[in-house]
Specification:
Arc Repressor Mutant, subunit A, 14 helices, 2 domains, alpha/beta, Conserved hypothetical protein from pyrococcus furiosus pfu- 392566-001, ParB domain, 312 residues, elongated
């Protein structure tokens, strides 16, 4: 599966007033929890060494799956080189809560470290959750379903508009909308996408099949036969035609006996992949039309947003 491109502008687009992270080494010791407020302010951008047992995981962590083999490899590296990049934490009851760096924290525990380098930030619950989401996405640590859940959380739980999410991640609104659409898949198929048995593009291809049982049938066929996205598109269209025989009849009547040029078919497939729905181009060199199919009001709104993004 192709590796996703790194994400863009990051936290500055969301929290312009948050101080930047600067890795200033502290000469010695563990951060004292009874330090004065002045000390806390002075140390805001300094690396402090905190007892690893005084740190607990982030309750808003979007990442659910941690590869044990890769954690072991990181732990081995930490034994040799230490923790190169500090964790980001915030103060909480009886210690600290991770904001970013849970994988490093887990690997440090495996390696036997007693203290880990940290930067303490005064984040509220909303900032804590958003930083955790973006940090994981910038590192490409989330699988497509975890990413979709994180994006949905930003828009629904924390009230960000799609424009704000788009600006913070350097991704188009169409990308964000298509990512969140994966959550419409049945949970079992989401697990296939999450585990890498099938790609997010495969998942988007079968979302519009109006029969959950047929969706599962195609998903299992994708995995069993290692189908490409293109082959899945053809199979999904065949199934939708079977489920909507009247649409198939209209399509045959409109096309007659003509065979579409390969170039037109290629453009239809490209637009189908970009927009996540069936595209039909008819006409000749002088005039014609492009038809986009939708199967619900949500689908219609999504396509309208995608077209608006394309012409900005």
């Amino acid at each position: 599966m192709a590796k996703k491109a790194g994400l863009g502008r990051g936290l500055d687009a969301l929290f312009a007033d948050v101080a930047p992270v600067e890795e200033k080494r502290r000469p010695a010791g563990i951060y004292e929890e009874n330090s004065s407020n002045a000390d806390n302010a002075e140390n805001e951008d300094r690396v402090l060494y905190i007892d690893i047992n005084n740190i607990r995981p982030n309750s808003a962590q979007p990442r659910k799956n941690f590869d044990e083999v890769k954690l072991g490899e990181l732990a081995s590296s930490i034994r040799t080189n230490g923790v190169i990049q500090p964790l980001i934490v915030r103060e909480s009851t009886n210690g600290y809560e991770l904001v970013a760096g849970e994988r490093r924290w887990r690997a440090a525990r495996i390696s036997g470290l007693r203290t880990v380098p940290c930067i303490v930030r005064n984040f509220d619950d909303k900032q804590n959750a958003i930083v955790a989401i973006i940090e994981n996405m910038q590192r490409e640590d989330l699988d497509p379903i975890e990413e979709a859940l994180g994006l949905k959380s930003m828009t629904e739980k924390y009230g960000f508009t799609q424009e704000q999410v788009s600006a913070s991640l350097g991704r188009s609104r169409t990308y964000i909308t298509n990512s969140i659409r994966l959550l419409k898949l049945p949970e079992e198929i989401q697990q296939y996408v999450s585990s890498g048995q099938m790609s997010a593009a495969h998942g988007r291809t079968i979302i519009n099949i109006p029969d959950k049982a047929r969706q599962k049938e195609i998903a299992e066929k994708i995995i069993r036969n290692d189908l490409s996205v293109r082959a899945t598109e053809r199979l999904a269209e065949k199934v939708k035609d079977e489920l909507r025989p009247e649409r198939k009849k209209r399509k045959k009547a409109s096309e007659g006996d003509k065979t579409k040029a390969a170039e037109i078919t290629a453009v239809e497939r490209e637009l189908m992949t970009l927009l996540g729905t069936k595209v039909n181009i008819t006409g000749d060199e002088s005039k014609g039309k492009i038809e986009l199919e939708y199967y619900s009001l949500d689908e219609l709104n999504r396509l309208i947003d995608a077209l608006r993004d394309a012409f900005k």
